[in-house]
Amino acid sequence: KHDCKVLVVGGGSGGCAMAAKLSSRLGRNKVIVVEPADKHYYQPMFTLIGGGMKRLEHSYKPMSQVLPKKAKWVREAAIEFDPDSNTVKTTGGNTIKYDMLLIATGLQLNYNKIPGLEEALAIPNGKVSSIYSPMYVDRVYDCLRNIKDGNAIFTYPSSPVKCPGAPQKIVYISEHYFRKMGKRDKINVIYNTALPVLFGVKHYADALWPIVKKRNITVNTRRNLIEVKPGQDIAVFENLDNPAERFEEKYSMLHAVPPMSAPEALTRCKQLINEAGFVSVDQSTLQHTKYKNVFAIGDSSGSPNSKTAASAAAQSPVVFRNMIAALNGKPLRDVYDGYASCPLVTGYNSVILAEFDYSLTPLETFPVAQNKERYSMFIMKKDLMPLLYWKLMLPGYWNGPALMRNLLSVFKFNKK
Ligand code: FAD
Ligand code: UQ1
């Protein structure tokens, strides 16, 4: 029923920014965005909402206000991809034909994969919460206020996640909150992560370990949440190195991070995805490995970078120029270096700004030691980033900090 030059599936961070770039280049109604949600959330704010530093109302705008006026918005979800016939079917029964397809569907939160978890998250005023969903994020601060003593348990699942730093940012914020409220000595702060490490980039992990030691936070690696027993306030973990081994831990509050995957509509289309279940793209050009008129951006991409909005921003000029080149039958020349960034909030006034690339070596913007906790980076995360997101990234003007990094590199002799 619909026809377009470029079809963008998903109007989140990556899809919205790309629709803005593409529709401004290609002109009115050449781009269609398929997106079912009526609200666009600035998800990086959820961590701060969990700590009571921002409110949920600050984190979203109506989708109609952020999607570019020059693109056509189909307010439905994609349910079937058919890359062999260049079409996508939607929930409203539409079939959309495209010349080029951009997949920007983000991640699906699979709370239902952990027995008992959704039930626990539905208990009014309950002890279980999660910053990952706007449905559950307000419960986090409630838990912080309500807990008096016992175990505060925080998890990290056995799946790729968006913003891999966020599950531990909320640990640091909570620990700081307990100290501020004078109840820290009655609460055990426990971080159970499925990962074998505290953080994937050694430069920053080496800075984080002394912080967890100093603040008496218990970190258990390779522990995966497999069940919640809401009636008994018990969380069940498995040892990923020996799955027969189970641990039951009683909680006074449980912060759960759900397992995540690409949305089912996408994973059903086996030709499009890799073994891990994400869009199979060339990690440099972000073009599909088989279908040359298909690209991916953001969290649903199979490129092996950390999944962050900062990554989507850095991918956007590459995807844009390569898509235009492909439309014009030209060779693809733009290369994505795997840039990802994670402002590791370590409390109510400090951030370690991690930035790195595919090789997991630091790729930092500022001419200061970024592996130190800084107030300046906290202000950047809390006050500047939301502005940058709404005013520059979504309208298609923010290409990640590469330009800023290159300009600032003249000051790098200052570093350390
Ligand atoms: P999203 O922005 O999630 O958008 C996906 C869109 O696709 C959604 O609008 C959805 O409705 C739509 N969609 C899904 N299925 C379909 C379908 N079948 N058809 C059509 N549309 C569909 N990043 C940072 O850079 N810094 C941070 O500090 C940071 N902190 C974070 C903290 C938390 C708690 C969370 C949850 C995320 C954080 N992130 C952070 C990560 C960042 O939010 C994501 O990486 C980013 O939003 C990914 O963009 P995306 O476009 O791939 O996906
Ligand atoms: C960034 O570009 C970005 O996306 C818009 C974020 O998500 C909100 C970030 O958290 C960060 C840190 C960046 C990188 C920007 C700079 C200035 C280092």
Highlighted features:
416 residues, FAD/NAD(P)-binding domain, 3 domains, seven-stranded mixed β-sheet, five-stranded parallel β-sheet, 21 strands, binds flavin-adenine dinucleotide, binds ubiquinone-1, transit peptide, sulfide:quinone oxidoreductase activity, Sulfide:quinone oxidoreductase, mitochondrial, flavoprotein
Topology:
Layout: E1 2-9, H1 13-26, E2 31-34, E3 39-41, H2 46-50, E4 60-62, H3 63-66, E5 72-74, E6 78-82, E7 87-90, E8 95-103, E9 108-109, H4 117-121, E10 128-129, H5 137-146, E11 150-156, H6 166-180, E12 187-193, H7 202-214, E13 218-220, E14 223-229, E15 234-239, E16 242-250, E17 253-255, E18 260-261, H8 264-267, E19 294-296, H9 309-327, E20 340-345, E21 351-356, H10 375-393, H11 402-408
Parallel strand pairs: 1-2, 1-8, 2-5, 8-19, 10-17, 11-12, 11-17, 12-13
Antiparallel strand pairs: 3-4, 6-7, 7-8, 9-18, 14-15, 15-16, 20-21
Helix pairs in contact: 1-9
Catalytic activity: ubiquinone-10 + hydrogen sulfide + sulfite + 2 H(+) = ubiquinol-10 + thiosulfate; ubiquinone-10 + hydrogen sulfide + glutathione + H(+) = S-sulfanylglutathione + ubiquinol-10; a quinone + hydrogen sulfide + glutathione + H(+) = S-sulfanylglutathione + a quinol
Domain FAD/NAD(P)-binding: 5-119
GO cellular component, one term: mitochondrion
